[in-house]
Amino acid sequence: MWVLPYARVPPPDAPVFASTDHALANTPVRTTGKGLIYVSLEQTVTVGADDFYQIHTGEFIRAADVKQIGRQLGVHYV
Predict the structure, then answer these.
(1) Each residue's pLDDT tens digit, 25-78
(2) How many angstroms separate the CA atoms of 10 and 45, rounded?
(3) C-alpha–C-alpha distance, residues 61 and 42, integer Å
(4) What is the pTM of this model?
(5) Residues 16, 63: Cα–Cα separation, whole Å
């Protein structure tokens, strides 16, 4: 069993970046869109004074753009 934190993304069209380098350069690959958006927070990455969450392989979002609200449980089957 694993636990993965998740969060709500309040700002509409929050930028999503391919890497933390792209985030620091402010060059998003897409946005989250509008509406009630939730993301899984796979890992936290700190670069200098900036914090980011990896939300998927090759996708990062600024920590300031999310509001962590809980954890989801999952089961890993072998």
Answers:
(1) 999 999 999 999 999 899 999 999 999 999 999 999 999 999 977 766 555 455
(2) 20
(3) 11
(4) 0.83
(5) 11
